[in-house]
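re: ur msg from earlier - yeah i can do the zinc ion complex, just paste it... oh wait u already did. ok heres what im feeding in:
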Amino acid sequence: MFRIIALALALALCVRASPAQEVNRDPDSASGPRMVVVRAEWLIDGTADKPRRGMEIVIRGNRIVDVRPTNSRPSPAGADVIELGGATVLPGLIDTHTHIYLQGEDPAAGGYDVQLLKSPASYRAARAMVSARRALEQGFTSIRDMETEGAGYGDVGIKQAINDGIIPGPRMWVSTVSISSTGGYPLEGYAPEITVPKGSQLIDGPVEARKAAREQLDKGADWIKVYMTHRSWVDAQGALISQPTLTLEELKAIVDEAHGWNRKVACHAYNGVGLQRALDGGCDSIEHGLEITDAQIAQMLKQGTWYVPTLQVYYTDWDPADTDSGKRDRKRVAVHGVSFSKALHAGVKMAFGTDVGGFKWSEPIAEEFLREVEFGMTPMQAIQSATSRAAELLGKRGEIGVIAIGAYADVIAVAGDPLADVRALKAVQFVMKDGTVFKKNPL
Ligand SMILES: [Zn+2]
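and the outut:
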């Protein structure tokens, strides 16, 4: 049976022209898949330091086959021409830390717990589909979704439905269930006699850790998500403290297993012992990284560790200032911006992430760009964090996050100049994903 499938696959690959063949032939050749030309006054290509004026993007099927001065050659015969006037075109944006299975639930309305305790899996999947659509509407043509929060392997099915063209949504890299330790993830605070669902797979010991990683990889995880810290508070000296979860041995088992599958490990880590274990254990990306010491920054540089800060989410839903949780909320923000600036100036590899789902999907994902600029990125650096840099984190350099020959035709446009004001990115008016126009408002 397996051999028959392999033979069929080989035949299918023979008859379909490979993307490389599509790219290498004359971009204006009339034969082959449908062609589209996108024209706008300004082009930000995701890698170059400066925008270019008066360029057109030539697309065949789902790939970019040329980027050239407008009207430098006649339009290919039969091509659709999309005129975007004075707009700025950019590569489709990439958010490398999302949760389509979270909805920024109001704590007063039951918050996180209600989703796990009262919502049928189908209801959560329906909402996740809407979240995925919201990402695409806002110009995010790729996301790395950082676990389903008690919804099991639901992200695998959403990704498949998007890839099969059943529902609209971004390209997805999914991390399924995630891994933490006993006492290292909600639901919490219920009677000890009852068993409640947990938003993560809880393990103890390197054997269980490796087994959890194997299960998740086997069932479709593109990345493994690990929680290296959990509770956090402010101590008597005013320092932010976070509870470490996995031991170094547990983490090393997971990283070793994932790397053996050619997959990567994203580690939620706030600061302190847990963050240090995340680095010593070989995490590929540090998520949040609220407070990173100079020595840890040096270690990240040495190891090539990615940093995915999530600034904006911590500015929402603060508890009252005189409560323990309220003090923690304020301290998180106070240290995060400092760490972001230090890492940026040291040259740590940084990618755009938001934790959207932690806040409502109805709020603009692009708000994070404003925080990135506030803490030291130029608007171009901020854009690149969500384009070419994020693509590099995902191992897709040159394929997404860039407008260049050979890349997927993920193209967005905004009115105005996002380099003068990154708020322009909050109003994406045109979205093409994989060569297909998803959204086109008047520009
Ligand atoms: Zn998250």
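cool cool. Residues 97, 99, 146, 355, 358 surround zinc ion (CB under 6 Å). ping me if u need the other ligands too
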